[in-house]
Amino acid sequence: MKSSNPSGVSRRTLAKAGIFGAAAAPLLAACGGEDGGADKGDGELDFWWWGSEPRHEYTQQIIDAFIAENKDIEIKPSPADFSGYWDALNVSVSGGNTPDVMQQDEKYLRDYADKNALLPLEELDIDLSQIEDSVLKSGQLDGKTYGIATGVNAIALLVNPALVEAAGMTVPDDTTWTWADFIQFTTDLSANGDAVGNSGVSLNNESLFNVFARQRGESLYNEDGQLGFTEETLTAWWQMVVDLRDAGAIPEASKIVEGYAAGQDQAPLATGTGVTEFYWTNQIGAIQDILGSELLLLRIPGESEGTRGMFLKSAMFWSVGRTTSDKAAAGKLVDFLLNNDKSLDLCLADRGLPSNIAQRERILPTLPADQQLGAEFIATITPELGEAPPVSPVGAGGIADIMLGVYESLLFDQATPQESAAAFIEQASAAIG
Amino acid sequence: MTDNDVAVVRPEQRSSGAPPEPAAGAPAPEPARARRGIGTTIKSRERWAALSFMSPWLIGLLAITIGPMVASFYLSFTDYSLGYGEWVGGENYQRMLDDPRLLQSIKVTAVYTFVSVPLQLAAALLLALVLDRGLRGMSFYRSVFYLPSLLGGSVAIAIMWRQVFGTEGLVNQVLAMFGVQGEGWVSHPDYALGTLILLHVWTFGSPMIIFLAGLRQIPTMYYEAAKVDGAGVLRRFVSVTLPLLTPIIFFNLVLQIINSFQSFTQAFIVSSGKGGPADSTLFLTLYLYDQGFTQFNMGYASAIAWLLLAIIAIFTALNFLMSKFWVFYGDND
């Protein structure tokens, strides 16, 4: 049978509309959480993911290909956008309706695993022989695998070379450049050209700060799930933001807030009014499309100074709900998504550069130009990289909002770098504590 | 609400003082049976009829309002999140004492309420006074002024607000004509809340309609008498209109304070759901949402919901207490 709602659009709308109504249901259903996975499956899988329209389309095609090979399995797809996805998933899991197969994010994986919502994937028959070891570890907690990474990403500095040239400058050597060089470079760009040196919408990104902290031998989170950096390090980071702001290397505060609210599609780099911005490598294609010209990828500054800070991040994970109604079918689907040629031919590097090494090498030559750029960048930096950061602690999902609030206060001069560092540490410790 | 409170006990009604009559359609009582017994049968039958007529609403109330309320009260004493929770006693409430963002959100909500409600009611009263004259096409004007009330809470208007008050928005374009360089109003922490207050004031339509109804109730003979005594327009407003309108003002005040403590949509859209910039539009409801749906602290979010309820209850009670000193019902001495 076909999915009752192939477009998935109204389902998505329904899921959102139902959030508040559904919030009551779990309370009445009391302890619906412990259904226990039936051994003999019913062949029906709820499959949830987030993304944008192109991803929804090709994922549906992957599902069709899967069903063609497994005629006894039925799949109910639930596509959503990123923020609506987490609201709906939160409510659904609370109500004891955990999806059978779902996309997970590094920030939330431990939240869901700790609440027993996810099935240890060792129980399923999934071929992991081709998955990179370090990548596999990123989905493991206390020795059990709760998510398998779809692919890897790295955070990098995206640069618009045409605008660098227009400012009469050259792109610096990113293998040796320092944060001081970065401040100088972006300040000069603003001074010599029409576009602003850096658009300032990612300096509040906690992963970027994590790179900075790792370069100083610290980290955003440590192995014990606590904050792993000192107040001095965060103060230095905020001080750099103030230096950038005062030098005119980033736009004025309210422009940054607007750029952030408008989303990356309309932020300065994409509209050609900013020369550089830090983004994940798999976002380069989307930004190039809007900009209509080529971008360059540079290493994060400061890599040659202390320890290496850059790392590969698992773009997203495939996880299985603990209460799945059909373990065998769920295992088959995840295996298909990770290892099947048809799946990767459609997905390419959209969910990160594939974690399956054999598949990665197979699809590399077929990648479109923009995804190729990200893939090459990752291939170049991989030998230099340090150890992957530990899995984010419970409550990490709230850190981005806290960092944004602190960043905004700093930009508007309502707090000094020291005060901002102290405020972030206080709020973040409460959130993950 | 006021109707209950007014409890209009006019002297003439009091003197007629008949006990409440049974419903008109009720069969005549049989003299043989004891009066009391019959009264009870009719009453209990009526009670069941009433209950069954009410049942659609009653079931809704129990399942959608009371049920979740009881549940959320219980959850506020647990660390409930993603389907699991353990009893933690008063920990969630204790945590409130040491939460800077909660304090900030209470501050923002209070400023929003106590600035926007008086401004909104003043605008509503002013427009009601203007519209109270027998102008031609009055119902058209009334509809036009009421329109923002219907639209103001919508997502579309909130998105439009963000555009209009943006750095390159309509407001700044108009200001630029006068040579003034405007700010990014919604993206600056000093002004963002102001734009939301303006949005709330703009939705003056529903209190305006209530004021209009109230103005109609004032007997014209008072105005005539005042005119004979030589009272001017302002004097008539201060000495006749305003005192006789106090019950309506009170009603609007209670309603609007409760409403604005609960506002969510506008801030959620204008600040992209984060309460920014720099937490300057972090309403209590927004923080509740953040805790419950972004940070998964459903237990703490439930406790915040009950804090919000307590705050609203306190201000409503204060309102009723203070009303004794300024609300004039016309029939008490």
Automatic annotation (TrEMBL), chain A:
Gene3D superfamilies: Periplasmic binding protein-like II. InterPro entries: Bact_solute-bd_prot1 (IPR050490), SBP (IPR006059). It comes from the Bacteria. PANTHER family: ABC TRANSPORTER SUBSTRATE-BINDING PROTEIN YESO-RELATED, ARABINOSE-BINDING PROTEIN-RELATED. This is Carbohydrate ABC transporter substrate-binding protein.
From TrEMBL, chain B:
GO terms for biological process: transmembrane transport. Residues 1-35 are annotated as: Disordered. Keywords: Cell membrane, Membrane, Transmembrane, Transmembrane helix, Transport. InterPro entries: ABC_transporter_permease, MetI-like, MetI-like_sf. Signal peptide: none annotated. It is found in: Cell membrane. This is Sugar ABC transporter permease.
